[in-house]
Each structure stands twice: as C-alpha cells, then as structure tokens.
Amino acid sequence: xxxxxxxxxxxxxxxxxxxxxxxxxxxxxxxxxxxxxxxxxxxxxxxxxxxxxxxxxxxxxxxxxxxxxxxxxxxxxxxxxxxxxxxxxxxxxxxxxxxxxxxxxxxxxxxxxxxxxxxxxxxxxxxxxxxxxxxxxxxxxxxxxxxxxxxxxxxxxxxxxxxxxxxxxxxxxxxxxxxxxxxxxxxxxxxxxxxxxxxxxxxxxxxxxxxxxxxxxxxxxxxxxxxxxxxxxxxxxxxxxxxxxxxxxxxxxxxxxxxxxxxxxxxxxxxxxxxxxxxxxxxxxxxxxxxxxxxxxxxxxxxxxxxxxxxxxxxxxxxxxxxxxxxxxxxxxxxxxxxxxxxxxxxxxxxxxxx
Length: 355
Hints:
By secondary structure, the protein is an alpha+beta fold.
C-alpha cells in the first residue's frame, strides 16, 4: 500500500447559529457562531439555546486558568536515585525557564508536577503559550528540557517525550485537577416564563433532569470528572469550524452542568476545565478558518493570549446554549426523536433537490 501524498479536502456542512450574547465580565459581544457538523439537528438546537439566553439578558463567562502541558518520562536505576533526582530537578526552575525562552518568545514555565513510580520519573511541565493552543510549543520546550536534564543528571535515561501524565487526548482526572487548556465557566439565569415559552418546559424539570441524568447517570456509568449531556457535540462542531485539533474534545468534553432554582428562575451553568483552543498555529491557515476567527473577533490586535481567551469563552457559551436546549427537549417524552426525524428528513429532501 502506497501513502497518498496529495492533499484532499473532506467537506463537512457548516452553518452559523445565534447570535450568542455574552455580557462579561471578560468580554461583551454578540456573535454568530460557526458549527461544522454532520448532525444537522445540532444547529437549530444550539440556536434555540442562544435565543433563550439572549432573551434572558445574556451569558456571563470567565476564564479561571490556562496552561498547556507535556509530561516527559525518565528512568533511574533505583527508587532512591529517582527520588533524589526529582528533588534536585525542582530546584532548577529558573534555569529551565531560560532554556524554554530559547524555543519561543511566548512559552513560559508555570509549574512542574511530579510522580515517581518505582524507578520511573514522570515530570509534568505546564506552560503558558500565548494565542496558540500550545501542543507543539510545549513539546518543543519539553524536548529541549529533556536534553538539559539528561546532560545534567547522567544517571537518568530517556523513556519518552510523552509519559501520558499530560494527559493528551485521553479521559483522565489529572487535567481537571491540575489544568490543561483553559478552565472556563459560563452561566445564565432564565425566568420561568422564558423557559415555558421558548423551551417548552419548566425550571423545575430541567433541574430535576440534570440531577437524575447528568449527575446520577454519569456516576453509575463511571464517568471521569464529567456530568453533561453532550458537550462533545458542540465542541466538535466549534473545533472543526475554527481550525482546532478536533481530538481534544476528549478531554474538552469532560465538564459539568450545574443547575439551581432561584426564586422560581433557572440558574444554568457549564464548567469546562479543559478547553484547548488557539487562534494561531497549525490548522489556522485555511481561508474558512480565518474567516470564522475574524467573524468571532479573534484576529484582532490584542495582548498575547487575549484572542485565544476570547475564543475559549465563545466556545463555552456555545456549549451552554446547546446543552440547555438538549436538556429542555429531554424533559418532554418523545420531543428529541420527533425533532431528529423532522430535521433529518428535511435535510435529506434538501440534499435530493440539490442533487
């Protein structure tokens, strides 16, 4: 079998939904959000959530933390040498920062976390990476740090540039606890009148469903730091439309929905600890990606990192809109399937007419 070197384009349908209204505190804007997906009901459903949130005054969202990680793996001859090496390594953060500065003007070492298993040493480096998602930037910095460590600690041996303690594109607890990507929370308060009129349900039903489905359901399923209905659907559509590494929806969709009743109104929030997005770097050179980033206001002249923060906030608010609409639909017996059948039949008819 011969590897095909010529590039081909896989066409995925894309539409704009919204506007999504965001009222701060980090940004205030109304944006139409591009979603690329083969699941056609995702567009009207997310649009409905956006409409409800706009009628409710808008969505508040913040970035609590941001960092990209890479964990390297070394080995020593014994646990004594391994533990001594770790203690010594942690005393040289300034020297390591000087090495990192040679690889990028944006990369900066934020922290190092360690795990020793027998004679194995797992070093989890955490970096700030400006407007890039930071995969390659963090790997390059870690690779240079490995060279420095192996020269300084001659008793240690290389095992891997990635020891799975990162954790990259795999479900884990460590990312939500220590951080990987941008930790974003978005919230909205919806009156009972808006719930009934636009979502065809009540605040009480949504709170009840969130407890029994998202919380209890994920517990009995053995979910890892996750309590949501379909974060991955909206994130994938958003990532594909904005040129992100789509496989990062694995850790990105590990998030929680929290709901409360507040004087009869619905408090609805989504917490996404691992949104991995960038506005520069790999995948951002395609014309449609540049146009979508421009549409979202993420190609402006700002301080390094601010465009990526804006993009992460818009992603989280889009997830909130889609999650709200789906949970509302699932409070009503048969609504979800009726909507799917209606929309997918309509899509098939449109496809036949175009053909």
